C-alpha cells in the first residue's frame, strides 16, 4: 500500500506501516485531550482537595493545610499510642496471661510481641520519614508504597482491624462496669443486671456515646488525650503501690464464672501479697479454661493472642498524621518512646502480679485488681478511661481510613456516600459506617475471642508495612532516603517473618481467612478498581519488576543464543494504526512469546519543532492507549527523523535492550490500495471513539488520492537496509481482509499456505534454503495458536525441471515420490512440522523457468548484471508474474494466510537502479494481486533445529 505504479491495484491494503509522513501532525490534535486527562496529576494535592494527592508535599507548603495541623509529638503521637497499647489489657487481662502462661512465658511473650512491634515501628518510621505523610495513617503509607491494589486491600483490613479493636475496647469497658456495678452474688438487689444481652446493651450504649463524641468533638479528644493518659498513669501507679503495700486477703470469684462458682457456696481466692512461694507457683505455665468464653481451653496461642491484642496500638500516632505539625519527626519519636514506656509498665505489672497473687485468683477473676487496690475506685476509673479512650481512638482511626479509601476511589463509586457525607472536614458518614460495624463485632460477646481476631488483623497490617519497606529497600529506589537511620532490610525482614509466623500461632483459621481475604481484595482491586487503573501513586510492583528485569537482562547473553531456543522478536513499523489493526493483532499472534515492538517514525527535525518538548513524548501516551485498546503484548518505540528511511534505521538499532532486540522487521506493502478505518467501521471488532478528540482524529491515515511521501526507491532501499543489517524481513499485504472471528467460525477457510519457491530465481533446492525454512517456521508458529490450530498447513512444491515418470513397477508397488518431494517430506518430519505437501503440475507444464530466469535475475541483488532492461523483457516478466499469480489464486480459495518467498531487492550499484526498484515492486505487486492476506518473507539466519 505504499504505492506502486500498477493499474491493477484497485483494492487498498490498510497497512501503511512504513509511511510516516501523513501523521506528522497527529499529536497536535491530541495534546489538549491528553493534558485534560493527565494534567490534574501535576497539580498540588491541596488544589484538588485530595489528602492523597500525587504531589504529597503540596499540602505542607499550603498555609491553609498547615494551619489545620495543630498536634505535636506528645499529644498527637505519644499519648494516643500509649493509651491504645494499654487498652483493656493493662487492668483486665495481664492477670489472665500470667495465671495461665506463668511469669517466664509471659515475659517471653512480651519480648516476642515487642520485638515484632519494634521492627514494625522501624518500618513505619522509615516510611514516615521518607516524605510528606497525609491523612489515612498506615493506609496512606502502604498504598503510596505498595500501590493501590495492595494498599487498598491492606487498608480495608486495617479499617476492619480498627473496628474490631474498638469492639474489643468497648467489651473491656463494659466488663469493668459489670464488675464494679453489677451483682456481686446471686441475691444482690440495686445493682445493674448482668447477662449476655444486658452486656450487649451496655456495649451498644458505650458505642453510641463514642459515636456522639466523635461526631461532635473528635479533635477535642485528641487534644485532651494528655489528661486521659495522666489519669490512666495515676491509676496504674496506684496498682503498683497496692501490690507493694497490701497484705493477704480473700477475693471473691465473679458470679458469672460458672466453672468454679455456684449458687449455694460463694467461692473465694487468695491474694497473698509479696511472697516467694506465690512467685514460685506462678513461674511456670498452668493453662486452664477461660470462664468468659464458655470454658474454652487456654493455650500458648490463645494467651499470646490476648496479649498482642492489647499492644497493637503502635499505628495510633500514624493515624493522626493528617493533624500532626511535623509527621516525619513526631511519628518516630512519639511511637518509639510510647513503646518503651508501655513495655516497662507491662513487665513491672507482670512481675508484681506473679509475686503477689495466687494462680487460682489470676485464672478465675480477671478483675481482681479492684478488690486488692488501696483505692478501688482508681482501678474502675483506669479501666473505664483506658478502654474508652482506646475504643474512641480506634473509632476515629477507622473512620479516617474509610474516608481515605473513599477519596482515593479504591472501590470506585461504592464509597461515594462517605465523601458526600462529610461536614466541616468531619467524615460523618464514615463514622456512622464504622459505628454500625462495631455493633456487629459486639455480637461476638467474648472479649478473648474478639482479641484473637483483632490480633490477626493488626498483624496482617504490620506484615504489609514490613513488606512495603522490605520491597522498596530491595529495589534500591534512589528516592527512598528515610531520615530514620536505624532501619535496614534486616529489620523489615525480621518484622515480616515475625508477624507472619505469629499470625498463624495465634489462630491458623483466622490468619488463613485474613490472608485469603486480602488476596481476593488484591485481585478484585487490580481488575476493577479505578485507582489501580489510574496508577496515581506508583506501585512497588513496578520497582520490583524493574529490579528483576534489569538483573535478568544482564544475564541474558546474546553470545549464548542457540537455534533450538530461537523465537521471533518482531518490530512492526506502523504509519497509522487506524488502517492496520488486523496486522497488529496478527503479529501479536506470530511473536510466540518473543519481543514485540510497534515502531513509528515521525518525519521532521527537532529544531523545527515549535514546542519546547520532544513531539514524540506527547504521542507516546496515545500509542500506549492504542496498545491497551488492541489488547496486544507490545512495546512502543517512536522516533523523530528527517526521513522515514533514516528513522527506520534508528528504530532497528535502538529497539529492545541487551539480547532482547528485534530479529524480524515487518513492513506493510507499498501499493495504492484504499485504506480502511478500523476505528470507525461499523462491523469492526476494533471500533472505538477513544481516539477522536472533538472531531480531530488521532492517528490520521493517507486518504485515497493523497500523494505518498515515501518513494518506491526509498521503500526498496529500506528492504535492502534491513537485510544489510542482518535482520529477517516480512512484507504484509491484504491484511485488511483478515478476520479472525470469521476464521474461527467458518468451515470454508481451512488452510495456511506456504510457497517456498523463489519466483525470481526458481530451482528445486528452494524448499531447503534458509528463507524457506524461516517461512515454514513462522507458518508453524501461527498454526500452534488456538484460533489457527484448526487450519491445515500446506506446503506447495513447485518443480521447474522435468522429473522422470514413475515406472509401472513403482506405480503398482508403492506410492511414488519424486526426489524433491521426498526430501521435503523428510525435512518436515525432522523439523516436527505437521504439513501436507502439494505438487503443482502446472508449474512444470506451463511455466518456462529457464527462459525467464535470466530476465528475473536482473532484479535481484545477487545479479552482477548491469544490462539495461528492455521494454520487451519488462512486459514478459510481468506476464510471467501474472501467470504465477493465477496458479496461486486457484489454490487459495480456502486459504486464511499465505506465506511467500521474498526475493532480494536489486543492488544499489546497478545501472538504472531507480527503474529496477519500480520494476521490482511491480513484479511483487503482480505476484500478490488479489490473494488472501499474504506475507512475503526473507530470512537471514537458520531458525530451525533437528537436534534434541
Key words describing this protein structure:
10-stranded mixed β-sheet; elongated; 8% strand; two-stranded antiparallel sheet; 54% helix; 948 residues; 36 helices; alpha/beta
Short description:
With 948 residues, the chain is α/β, with parallel strands linked by helices. It contains 36 helices and 18 strands. The longest helix is centred in the first third of the chain and has 40 residues.
Strand order of the largest sheet: 9-8-7-10-13-18-17-14-15-16
| Mean pLDDT, all residues | 80
| Biggest beta sheet summary | 10 strands, mixed
Instruction: Determine the structural class based on helices, strands and strand pairing.
Output: alpha/beta
Number of DSSP E strands: 18
Question: What topology emerges from the helices and strands here?
Answer:
Elements: H1 26-38, H2 58-61, H3 63-67, H4 73-86, H5 89-128, H6 138-146, H7 148-181, H8 196-223, H9 225-245, E1 249-252, E2 268-271, H10 276-281, E3 289-290, E4 296-297, H11 300-309, H12 316-319, H13 327-356, H14 359-364, H15 369-372, H16 376-407, H17 416-420, E5 422-423, E6 426-427, H18 428-442, H19 447-475, H20 489-506, H21 508-528, H22 530-534, H23 540-555, E7 570-573, H24 581-590, E8 596-603, H25 615-630, E9 635-641, H26 644-654, E10 664-668, E11 692-693, E12 696-697, H27 712-724, E13 728-733, H28 740-745, E14 751-755, H29 770-783, H30 786-789, E15 792-797, H31 808-813, H32 819-830, E16 836-839, H33 841-846, H34 849-856, H35 871-890, E17 895-901, H36 913-927, E18 934-938
Overview of this protein structure:
The structure is a single chain. The protein is α/β, with parallel strands linked by helices and 948 residues long. The chain has 36 helices and 18 strands. It has a ten-stranded mixed sheet with strand order 9-8-7-10-13-18-17-14-15-16, with helices on both faces. It has a two-stranded antiparallel ribbon with strand order 1-2. It has a two-stranded antiparallel ribbon with strand order 3-4. α4 (73-86) packs across α9 (225-245) and α19 (447-475) packs antiparallel against α20. The longest helix is centred in the N-terminal third of the chain and has 40 residues, at 89-128. It is elongated. It starts with 25 loop residues before the first helix and ends in a 10-residue tail after the last strand. Residues 1-65 and 802-814 have low confidence and may be disordered.
